[in-house]
């Protein structure tokens, strides 16, 4: 059963976990996550070794010049164990889509979002509660940040500073054997996941929006997500339910996105999880990635000011066409991989239809203009179309903070992958680059050879 996702009360399937790739083989009665991993890793190592011996020379992907200039889009060149992004089905956690996860899992007590086995929730919640304390130098650093420093930058800096607590860095300096890497990485990842809500809540409460309010103490009887919402200062049960959903659907999105790939790349140099995840957060800070839900809400808010609810669709259409004709994009629509509406958008829409069906921002839906324009391969809503709207509805007006929530959630997936990367002995990532001149010469040779045939 999924131990990592159990503590978050969501995100997983009946017999799969993002932190424990092969947890489908583990005993549901197990509660100590490290013991479960110690049992699973040798089996997975043997399975992959056999697979590589039999199929190591099999060609997986052909690479075109357009792919090389287009940000490596579509190149199958990375192994990432914890999730897969299907162009039609969307994100799958260990073989289960988001709708399947929602159906398979029991519900949280008094709520409507998924909840894996209670024993595992309790064990992992207590484990993270024990590890949650922040060192004094990180608290001092956070206290001294100017309040105009973007919260995602504060998060990245604080995570980097937590490197002082890295058991992996100390052990590596002492010459620990590589077969022990995963165990040390596991401990650091568990520490980091435990501390992240405290860092994020302090940024929110102390530095930005709540005029120095205390984040309060961790309650070991509550799960990871619930403690986080309490530390943020939100006590509405529906907001807690929303955070269960939000932290689920943002927790992983295969390895090719900027932040996940960054953590994988930096981790391949044996930088410890603090440094790897801080680098990932710097990637998440880009407006084409983690800041997208902030941009959606800014755009919708401006649209709502200019287009009243009584104005017909034609007027709304004019506003959108003006956005497109000015060279801008309509934020919250389209996706680099998906070719159907994003299931993460769909489950948020279902939540909104239950709890805020009359919210004016929720009801601002872009008509089929993107289909008419014909430029976007996927003109349908993505995960960002509603995430900011939902947070705004429940009183979190601070749009700059949304990327921090994304980062806290994504830790579950990318740090899980770091454990598996070290357990499976993945090497330093080092693709070969080419200059335009060398690429042109290569293409000329290929065309000459084909012509000779």
TrEMBL record:
Compartment(s) where it occurs, according to its Swiss-Prot or TrEMBL record: Mitochondrion matrix
GO cellular-component term (any): mitochondrial matrix
Active-site positions on this chain: 289, 335, 384
Pathways per UniProt: Carbohydrate metabolism; tricarboxylic acid cycle; isocitrate from oxaloacetate: step 1/2
Gene Ontology biological-process entries: carbohydrate metabolic process; citrate metabolic process; tricarboxylic acid cycle
InterPro entries xref list: Citrate_synth-like_lrg_a-sub (IPR016142), Citrate_synth-like_sm_a-sub (IPR016143), Citrate_synthase (IPR002020), Citrate_synthase_AS (IPR019810), Citrate_synthase_euk (IPR010109), Citrate_synthase_sf (IPR036969)
Keywords: Transferase, Tricarboxylic acid cycle
Alphabetical list of SUPFAM superfamilies matching this protein: Citrate synthase
Main location: mitochondrion
GO molecular function (one): citrate synthase activity
Gene3D superfamilies: Citrate Synthase, domain 1, Cytochrome P450-Terp, domain 2
A family per Pfam: Citrate_synt
Catalytic activity: oxaloacetate + acetyl-CoA + H2O = citrate + CoA + H(+)
Taxonomy, superkingdom: Eukaryota
Function: Key enzyme of the Krebs tricarboxylic acid cycle which catalyzes the synthesis of citrate from acetyl coenzyme A and oxaloacetate.
The family this protein is said to belong to: Belongs to the citrate synthase family.
PANTHER family in the cross-refs: CITRATE SYNTHASE, CITRATE SYNTHASE, MITOCHONDRIAL
Quaternary structure note: Homodimer.
Annotated protein name in UniProt: Citrate synthase
């Amino acid at each position: 059963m999924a131990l990592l996702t159990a503590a978050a009360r969501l995100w997983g399937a009946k017999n799969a976990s993002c932190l424990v790739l092969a947890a489908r083989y583990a005993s549901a009665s197990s509660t100590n996550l490290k013991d479960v991993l110690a049992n699973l890793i040798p089996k997975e190592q043997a399975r992959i070794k056999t697979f590589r011996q039999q199929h190591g020379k099999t060609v997986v992907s052909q690479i075109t010049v357009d792919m090389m200039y287009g940000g490596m889009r579509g190149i199958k060149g990375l192994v990432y164990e914890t999730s897969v992004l299907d162009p039609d089905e969307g994100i799958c956690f260990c073989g289960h889509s988001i709708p399947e996860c929602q159906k398979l899992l029991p519900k949280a007590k008094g709520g409507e979002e998924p909840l894996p086995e209670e024993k595992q929730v309790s064990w992992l919640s207590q484990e993270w509660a024990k590890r949650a304390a922040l060192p004094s130098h990180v608290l001092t650093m956070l206290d001294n940040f100017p309040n105009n420093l973007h919260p995602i930058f504060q998060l990245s800096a604080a995570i980097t500073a937590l490197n002082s607590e890295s058991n992996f860095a100390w052990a590596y300096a002492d010459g620990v054997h590589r077969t022990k890497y995963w165990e040390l990485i596991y401990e650091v990842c568990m520490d980091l996941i435990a501390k992240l809500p405290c860092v994020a809540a302090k940024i929110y409460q102390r530095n930005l929006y709540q005029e120095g309010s205390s984040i309060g103490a961790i309650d070991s009887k509550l799960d990871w997500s619930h403690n986080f919402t309490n530390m943020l200062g939100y006590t509405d049960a529906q907001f807690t339910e929303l955070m269960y959903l939000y932290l689920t659907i943002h927790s992983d999105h295969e390895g090719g996105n900027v932040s996940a790939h960054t953590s994988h790349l930096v981790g391949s140099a044996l930088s410890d999880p603090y440094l790897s995840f801080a680098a990932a957060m710097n990637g998440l800070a880009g407006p084409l990635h983690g800041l997208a839900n902030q941009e959606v809400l800014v755009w919708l808010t401006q649209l709502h000011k200019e287009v009243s609810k009584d104005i017909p669709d034609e007027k709304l259409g004019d506003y959108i066409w003006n956005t497109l004709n000015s060279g801008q994009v309509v934020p919250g629509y389209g996706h680099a991989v998906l070719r159907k509406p994003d299931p993460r958008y769909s489950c948020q829409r279902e939540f909104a239809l239950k709890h805020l069906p009359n919210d004016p921002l929720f009801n601002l839906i872009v008509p089929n203009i993107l289909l008419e324009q014909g430029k976007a391969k996927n003109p349908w809503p993505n995960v960002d179309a509603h995430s900011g709207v939902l947070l705004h509805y429940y009183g979190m007006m601070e749009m700059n903070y949304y990327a921090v929530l994304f980062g806290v959630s994504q830790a579950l997936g990318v740090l899980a992958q770091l454990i598996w990367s070290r357990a499976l002995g993945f090497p330093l990532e080092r693709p070969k680059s080419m200059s335009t001149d060398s690429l042109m010469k290569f293409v000329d040779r290929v065309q000459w050879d084909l012509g000779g045939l």
